[in-house]
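To whoever is on call:

I kicked off a structure prediction for a single chain this morning and the downstream step that reads the tokens threw a length-mismatch warning. I double-checked the sequence; it's 462 residues and nothing unusual in it as far as I can see. Pasting both halves so you can look.
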Amino acid sequence: MNVTSNQDFAALDQAHALHPWQHFAGMAREAPLVITGGQGCMVTDSAGRSYLDAVGGVWCTNIGLGRAEMAEAIGAQALKLAYANPFVDMTNDPAALLAAKLAELAPGDLNRVHFTTGGSTAVDTAVRMVSYYHHARGNPTKTDIVSRENSYHGSTYLTQSVGKRPGDRVDEFRYKTEGIHHLSCPNPYRRPAHLTEAQFCDALVAEFEALIARVGADRIGGFIAEPIQASGGIIIPPEGYLRRMWQLCQRHDILFIADEVVTGFGRIGHWFASLAEFGVQPDMITTAKGLTSGYIPLGALIFSDRVYQAMAGGASGWFTSGFTYSGHPVACAAGLKNIEIMAREDLLGNAVRVGAYFEARLQALSSLPLVGDVRGRKLMLCVENVADKTTKALLPDEAGESKRISNACEEMGLLVRPIGHLNVMSPPLTITEAQVDFVVDTLERAIAKVADDLVREGFKLG
């Protein structure tokens, strides 16, 4: 097979590949962008064009692409031991070392680690562990899970049922509904107009209290939340919200699962954000993505000694869950090298410094047509596009403004991610202020262009 051109690669992809979240009509109409190389924050397509990847892959290329020492660590481990059975009473040295390192980095008594294949399987395991934990303690009915509207927690059958983004729910699939409850999304920008942010927080907490009273604390086993909802729209909850929800969980013996698949490993300047940023000591943390900076698939559920000890005292004596690639030695070697690089180069500090600059620069876009809200924290940011700044009304879906903005950015050498009516950015933690300037300046030109085009097409912007 002689494949050399961008068109050849794209044609093969269109003929044979089914992508995550593929839109069938769009895929048939528009050839995919074929990425063939990457270095730092930059990626290159098969036609030789370069782009600044402000998406960071999918929230994950934290140390940047093309790291020779990472490739060497992966290669050396593959030669030494490419795979080892992780089941029952076997392990390998990189898995043991990484488990200990994660216990060291995680807050409080989160000293136990279950390795998975990615974020979805980490969350899937956490939700199932809720049931195991409570059953082992003599509460077999305490299995219900509480999540939020517009949340994303993964794409397995169970985790997509726990999450509830409108764009993830299609009629062709079925979702688990029994034992899963969804509270309101804690989005201050979309709060009822008559409520202050503090009143909105009170209402959200009261909603959880009412749910517990209605369903019964004897049935609710766990509450899961991203500290900042990522794919759900870069939602930073009202001040004090997460801590108050955690306190309710403590009061009613409900496990608090912090989904830090995105916020973990430096995205907002901390190894983990729950305690450091929001004052919450979770019972479990799920992580993936930045754990290896996307070099090798790996996820982990980090959980407390208290949870472990309760499960170990269960009647069955077996934890019958896990994966062929749990604790994969090559993936764990990548995780160890990733953490080493992040610590040595102070990438958490860079995320704080350059992230603050990014926040300030991006706020300047608030005055542009289309821009209703600019929000986020450090290197986890987005612009929300609206038809009317006063009423916050959205454009009709057929306007497709976010995809058009990302297309315009792509033409100018920038990748941003369109999600619904948002354009989202989560660049590598190595990004510089000069690169931030390029991102913001390019995005500004793209928004202005798309706004002009929409007006000419008859859409009303106010």
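Update from on-call: the warning came from a stale cache, not from the record. Cleared it. Sanity check on the structure: The first helix runs from residue 6 to 16.
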